[in-house]
């Protein structure tokens, strides 16, 4: 094959690759746009870079659309890294807390006992999350596992295992277990829980509940519990 023919082939391949990249970037832009539209308005996007308000930067973005596309891709990559980092973590809410440095050791004993009794996956680490409000009843408890599969199995079976404990009615508030979430996901979760709480109060029973980031309707509604104990805000976790 002549050198000219080889160059023509290279140019053709590069042109095809360019079109493929343009298609990929458009698909990623659509995904990002849909994700942003699905979140409640916050008045200001937390991911917005203050440099974007600079007139010079705005002018560059206007003249070079690729700049905003690359920025969006970087943000998407950052979000993916966040999800990967959190994929081995579960969060337990409302687990009693004495606010001392020794609480993690107590949590470890409790979780070891729960896991061994009910054949749940064994955790590798546990720690309490700092809260802005020092008077909360319980700081969220983060539990780390070796694999995402172990984490998911633990979350899926947690409530059933807790209800089987003889002492489960002694907990001031029902224990909840969920996956570790990003700040945007926590905002959505908080709004979903608020909606469910108001709907259940109106119904006079626990008719709806939140699982992950979905609202589900129970086939066997339960009476509303009586509790005046405050728990840590989910945004802290």
Briefly say what this structure is.
The protein is 51% helix and 14% strand. By secondary structure, it is α+β, with helices and mostly antiparallel strands. It has a 4-stranded antiparallel beta sheet with strand order 2-3-1-4, covered by helices on one side. A two-stranded antiparallel ribbon has the order 5-6.
Summarize the structure in words.
By secondary structure, this protein is α+β, with helices and mostly antiparallel strands. The protein has 2 domains: 38 residues; 150 residues, Alpha-Beta Plaits. Helices cover 51% and strands 14% of the residues. The protein has 6 helices and 6 strands, in the order αααβαββαβαββ. The strands form 2 sheets. The chain has a 4-stranded antiparallel sheet, covered by helices on one side. Strand 5 and strand 6 form a beta hairpin. Helix 2 packs across helix 3. The longest helix is centred in the N-terminal third of the chain and has 36 residues. The protein is elongated and about 80 Å long. About 8% of the residues have low confidence.
List keywords for this structure.
single chain, 237 residues, alpha+beta, Alpha-Beta Plaits, 4-stranded antiparallel beta sheet, 6 strands, 51% helix, coiled coil
The CATH homology group name of the largest domain: RRM (RNA recognition motif) domain
Strand residues, percent: 5-15%
Number of domains: 2
Q: What proportion of the residues is helical, as a percent range?
A: 40-55%
What is the level-2 CATH architecture name of the largest domain? 2-Layer Sandwich
Global morphology: elongated
CATH class of the largest domain: Alpha Beta
Number of helices: 6
Total E-strand runs: 6
On the 0 to 100 scale, the average pLDDT is: 80
Poorly predicted parts: 39-52, 229-233
Keywords: Coiled coil
Coiled coil: 4-38
